[in-house]
Amino acid sequence: MSSASPTSRYHWTNLAPLVAVVVLAVSWGHHPGTVAAVGIGIFLIGAVLSAVHHAEVVAHRIGEPFGSLLLAAAVTVIEVALIVTLMISGSGDTSALARDTVFAAVMITVNGIAGLSLLIGAVKYRMAVFNPEGAGSALTTVVALATLTLVLPRFTTSTPGPEFSSAQLTFAAVASLGLYGIFVFTQTVKHRDFFLPVDPHEAGAVGLPDEDGDGHADPPSDRAALVSLFLLLLGLVAVVGLAKVESYPIEDAVDAVGFPHSFVGVVIALLVLLPESIAAGRAAARNHVQISLNLAYGSAMASIGLTIPAIAIASIWLDGPLHLGLEPTQMVLLLVSVIVAVLTVVPGRAKSLHGFVHLSLLAAFVFLAINP
């Protein structure tokens, strides 16, 4: 077999995660200069692209919606570890770090990843077709989680400011984890067919009964899937870790152009969510918009449902307040995003206009993060 084949052990998609981890080990804890930051950025991009490749290999083996669920959960678990690490060891005020990171992830996934996927699907196939039952269930869970954890702290009265009391935080953590667990059960067991790609020629279809009957290559072997799973996790560790290393030059760049320091978190969130963004875009290009929405809404769900419980546990050892309540501008953006997403999901079909509307909301979020 040629060394250029994707299945070769020396193919770049297999080597990139290993090299990226070595670069991470060498650069961790350092403040790289401009030239070093550019070099690290190249390895970061390589790790992102290889992670997407291996996620698709694993997804092809285990089938949907398990593949998109795996990628969303894996990225979020590593992202949670990064947030907790920054809150424990970070300098300065980290009281709103978890809130800002989770909200950025929600806006990027619900408006950015979903909007880009809808735009790609609609432009290439005239209409982006998906299952409203599956996408609607996921969106409903995202809205409930965001309201419980990011909106309510602004209106509770047990403690001053946008934070929960200990009992309220415990309830929010348990409720978040419970909602996420119930959704995963619904997605993978109870109503799995709602989350499979739909046949664009059959408006009432709920899922394709045979995903491998489309002329694509046969699923990989168990051994190949396990190797790809290992390299996927390794690549995601490298992506999040190198994003953290790149935060130092990003901070310098943000300060140099006069942007608010909080914008650094938005840039890092964009980097961390690159694997899902690319995977969702590629799925939409294959007319599998449902898989794209599984990734988008699943990532938003996992970001809240896994982060809040982890932060609740970590808060036992963390000093200082934990601000979870959104600012008024953020709540307006969240409300408009929810309304637009509901109107997009209900018909089960979307035009390119829907994609542009979602992307305009993402642009508004990024602009207001720069110029609050």
SSE map:
Elements lengths: L11 H16 L6 H29 L3 H24 L7 H29 L2 E2 L2 H20 L14 H25 L31 H36 L5 H10 L1 H12 L3 H26 L13 H18 L3 E2 L1 H19 L2
Antiparallel strand pairs: 1-2
Describe this structure in words.
It is a multi-pass membrane protein. Its main location: membrane. It is found in: Membrane. InterPro entries: Alkaline_pH_Ca-Antiporter (IPR052946), NaCa_Exmemb (IPR004837). Keywords: Membrane, Transmembrane, Transmembrane helix. The chain is mainly α and about 375 residues long. The chain has one domain: A middle domain of Talin 1, CATH 1.20.1420.30. The protein contains 12 helices and 2 strands; from the N terminus they run ααααβαααααααβα. It has a two-stranded antiparallel ribbon. Helix 9 runs antiparallel to helix 10. The protein is globular and about 55 Å long. The N terminus is likely disordered.
Quick summary:
The chain has 372 residues and is an all-alpha fold. The chain is built from 12 helices and 2 strands, in the order H-H-H-H-E-H-H-H-H-H-H-H-E-H. 71% of the residues lie in helices and 1% in strands.
